[in-house]
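User: Fold this, then the next.

Assistant: Folding the first:
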Amino acid sequence: FKIQNYQELNKKLEEYIYKLKEIDPKGIKLSNSGGWHSPYFKIGESEVLKDFVKIIQKYLSEIITVDFGWAFRNDKVIIEGMWSVVNKKNSFNIRHSHPNCMLSAAYYVKAQKNSGKIKFWDPKEVKTMRYPFIEKFTDLSVEVIKFEPEEGTLFIFPAYLHHAVEENLSDEDRIVISFNVDILK
C-alpha cells in the first residue's frame, strides 16, 4: 500500500526514531547486521505513533478481510510489537521470520535508491529441492522475490514468510518501521 500524504508523517516519524536512537545508541541485536534496531515502541506514549496506528488500521482491515478472507473485528486485531531499524551504509538484515503472530509489516520512512531491497522466500521448502525446468520466471515460479523500498510504502505479509534486507549501498540511512499483528479468537 502507498500511504497518502506520507511526507509530513514520515518527517515526524523520522524525528521520533532519531530521538530514540540518541537515547539508546546501542539499540538491540536481532536480524540487523551493522544497523540500529530499536526496542519495541511504547505506542501509547507518542502522538505520532498513535496517528500512525490509526492510519494503518484501514490497511490491516483491507488485507485481513479482502486478501486473506479472515474475520475482522477491530478489537481482535492486536499489534504485538512495533519497532524501527535504521540501516546506515553497508548495513543489512539477515533472513528471518516472525513466529507467534499472523502478519508482519514494513513501512518505509526513509528509503533512497540502492538502500536495500526487501526479499521474500517462497515458503514451500520442497520447491527448492524438486521443481520442473523454469522457462520463464514469474512471481509464482521464483524462489526469492525482491521489492525496492519506497518512502510511504507499507508492506503487510504473512509472518511465516522468510525475509531479509539487502545491503544499503546508498550514502543515506534507510529507516523502516516494522510491526507484528495477531488476531485473537
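Now the next one, as you asked:
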Amino acid sequence: MKTRCPACGATSSLDALLGHSEASQAFKSCLSLVGELQNPLVKYLALFRPDNRDLTFDRASKLVNELAQDIVAKQIKRNRQTFPAPLGAWVWAIGVILERRDQGKIDLPLKTHGYLYEVISSYKPEYS
C-alpha cells in the first residue's frame, strides 16, 4: 500500500516504512502520542527538513523520541524552570510556530526543539 506524507508529499510503501527500523520506531512513537497532537506533530517535524534533502527516518525518530517524555510528563524544562505543558500547550505552540513560519518570521530548518519549548513556556490555558 502506498502512503503520502501530508507534510512533505513523499510517497512510500507502508510496508517499507514499517520494515525500516527507524521509520517503524518514528511511526509507532507518533501513534502512541495522544490523538489531537499527531497531525500538528507531523507538520512540526517537516520544519526540520533541509531544503535540498528529505528528513531521514533516523532524524525523525530521534526528534519524536526527544519530545515523547515531556509530552507524557505534561511539563517541560526551559532556562532551569519547569513549565506545565498539557496536550493543549503542545498543539497551541506548534500552531504558533507554523503561523510564524508562514509569515516568514523563523529561520528554517529548525535544528533543535528550543524554539518550541520557548513558545510552550509562554502558554496560558486561555489560548486553547
